[in-house]
Amino acid sequence: MHLLQPASLASRLTRMNVLVSATALFLACAAFVAFDVITFRQSIVRNLSVQAQVLGSTSVASLVFNDRDSAQKTLAALHAAPDVVSACLYSADGRPFVEYHRDVPRGLPPVARLQPGEQEAYWFGHGDVMLLDPIVFQSEPIGYIYIESSLDALWARVRLYLFISAGVLLGALVAALAVSLSFRKVTLQPIHALAEVARAISQDRNYAVRAPAGGVPLELGDLVGAFNGMLVQIEQRDRELRDARDELEHRVELRTAELAAANKELESFSYSVSHDLRAPLRSIDGFSLALLQDYGDSLGADARDYFGRIRAATRRMGLLIDDLLNLARVTRCEIRHERVNLTDIARAVEADLRKADSSRAVECHIQEGVEAEGDVHLLRVVLDNLLSNAWKYTSRHPSACIEFGQMNSNGDRIYYVKDDGAGFDPAYAGKLFGAFQRLHGASEFPGTGVGLATVHRILLRHGGRIWAESEVEKGATFYFTV
Amino acid sequence: MDDQVILLVEDNPDDEVLTLRALKKNQIMNEVVVARDGVEALDYLFCQGPHSARNPGEMPQVILLDLKLPKLDGFEVLRRIRSSPRTRLLPVVILTTSNEEQDRITGYGLGANSYVRKPVEFGEFVSAVKQLGLYWLLLNQNAPLPGRL
Predict the structure, then answer these.
(1) What's the whole-model pTM score?
(2) Which of A318, A286, A325 is closest to B125 using CA atoms?
């Protein structure tokens, strides 16, 4: 496992188990060893004390009779005790009487170490213990016995203890590890099950599943309960969302159907307009002309003028119906988006205008390479209307200049059609793009007032817009975006 | 030219009068048979009902067909004309008020030879009829009728 990676709960639990076991065992071993060392030391001192008393009572005669040989023999018996490294029998005045050394002669302590009245003195040195006892005969101190014993046995025992403790510790750790490994499966199983359920939910988005709650520990039971509670809420919310979406879809379907019906109605309406409204007009015009042709001679000048007016009004109504139908068609036709060369279209419109009225002196400046994204037929209608308007509203001037081009403003591409004709009062600019709205009388400039409304609707359907600037007799400029 | 019959299928009596007047104004003196609905037109063409006594070997030189008709509409009449071996090669000119794109597509799709929109202005209508007569009655050579082969 990498050190920087977050450890799994299982390995953390194992580590904790092993650490706790190790600490407990270590403390127990340490306490046991300490207790044993202390007890063993005390028993060494006790043994030494017994030896000293035995040697003391054996040496009483030697001291009393000043028999050094006998005393020497008595001390030599210490050879049987392997731990005793040296011993000394002092006379009553504190001078060494006889000495015993196992290997090399060693320094002897002064008897003054024994406080007056004290029965025994012992102390520890480096790796050995020293003991000093008075020798009493008939309640009179007649000398002292000193024994120095090495603590090798103690250290050997301590070493053995440490060795055994280490073995026990190791064994216990292995056992703890094994137990923890075998138990962690049981302990962590509910957590794994919970994680599995959570993963399945996040992958399949199936909120109907539940984490198993049986046989889990108390704390995990709370977690599983809360988790399942959350799932219930999510499931409920999910269902509500789905219901809302279905409801919305249903409504959209309903509206679409209504729209389709309305569209169909509009289609049949405009078909009806196109067919049925024009037929009576044809009759009115046809029979007016028939009357004029067949009975014109017997009619007065007024009557002939009235018939002329009837026929002009009829023609005008025919134009209105055609324009209205075009406006309706523009609203419902499908838009195909493609790259459109507006320069070419503007040139074609200009050519048509010149052909229709070759007597006009009009200068046309059409910018090269003007392009737009949109429906080629509808954009042609736009340019046709705008350029025809420019052509029409400059007709009262002896010469005219019409411009078409594009410019950039804040990253938007703006197209414009500019003329130097009659213009309009900017106060009425808002009325320009409404159907049947006209700013000039029909006698001044002919028209139905549907052209700019059509242009407006086409540009709206392209997501663009149109606006105009003008002053009376100073020309007009129409700007649009596609 | 005089023996060639024009079949005018037209339900509007005003339009019938105006069409006849336009033909007369253009000195087209052919006999004009007028059918006032789709069924009448088919009866005439297939010599059935009131026209059962008609000589089936004679067919109109051109059929001027309105679209909006009672009983059977113009498209249905055109479909029947084109699906019968006896009439499928007859020239049919749709003469209608409608300028709907869909109508033109359907009309040509069903095999109309021509689609002419009736102008509101009678002067224009007269000149349209004149050109129709000139073309379909004088200039155009029809396919021979199956019976005459």
Answers:
(1) 0.52
(2) A286
